[in-house]
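Reopening this ticket.

The earlier resolution said the output was attached, but the attachment link was broken on my side. Pasting everything inline this time so it's all in one place.
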Amino acid sequence: MELPFLSAHTDSAMATSHAETPDYFVRAATAADDDAILALCARFAQVPLPHFRQRTTYLAHVRRDIAADLEALPTGTVVLVAEDARGRCAGFARVRLVNDSIDGTRNAHLADLVVASAHEGKGTAQALLDAAEAFARAQHCTHLQLFTFPDHERALRLYRRSGFETDMLRLVKPLA
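Inline output:
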């Protein structure tokens, strides 16, 4: 998928004030990125899950879903990779075009955003989020939406700082 909305490097405004903050190059993933992307799926095991979710089941589901998209990227889906200054995969995001369930408008859904532990707090997640937003705007989407677990405070801070607001809350009552 062509990504004319992405600049060659992230805007300096995306970087934090730390002098050691590297610039990240965000681009569409290629088949050469598959192993690095799938290796980063292990980071999902560190997400705070509700007590009724099984970590191994969640991890297997996410890995299987991402692997399927990497094998045959669905229409309207983009996988973005953030490269560090050495050209290594520092993180990835997966974005899908969807229709809003209430008003039918075209939206972009941020299905995943993962950063390698060595790149946490260095602007990688923000660079990927900004690229996802640029993709959504280029596709004339009304909203960029996502789901996250309620105890994933680090992700919630990033999303709120980036202008996300609560739309609906999904509540679950375990029956077994």
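Reporter confirms the inline version is readable. The two ends are 43 Å apart (CA to CA). The CA atoms of residues 52 and 174 lie 7 Å apart.
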